[in-house]
Design brief:
Keywords: Metal-binding, Repeat, Zinc, Zinc-finger. One of its GO terms (molecular function) is GTPase activator activity. This protein has helices at 19-36, 68-73; strands spanning 57-59, 64-66. It contains two helices and two strands. It has a domain at 45-73.
Length: 74
């Protein structure tokens, strides 16, 4: 079976399209990050890798939050 390559903006996506498409895709990713980081989800306040409180970075490809130290390792 042959799998088609993922197309479009974001992780694993291709480059191309208009500026309006790029801005729309950027808004989609920003919305996803805001949803992941919502205050109602207490687990998102700790680093996924080391459990340190106070995350700084988000890996949107897998939807995890990491601290500054672990972000350098990833």
């Amino acid at each position: 079976m042959v799998m088609a390559a993922k197309k479009g903006p974001g992780p694993g996506g291709g480059v191309g399209g208009s500026k309006a498409e790029a801005e729309a895709a950027s808004e989609v990713w920003c919305r996803r990050v805001r949803e992941l980081g919502g205050c109602s989800q207490a687990g998102n306040r700790h680093c996924f890798e080391c459990a340190q409180r106070g995350v700084t970075y988000v890996d949107i490809t897998v939807g995890s939050f990491v601290c500054t130290t672990c972000s350098g390792l990833l």
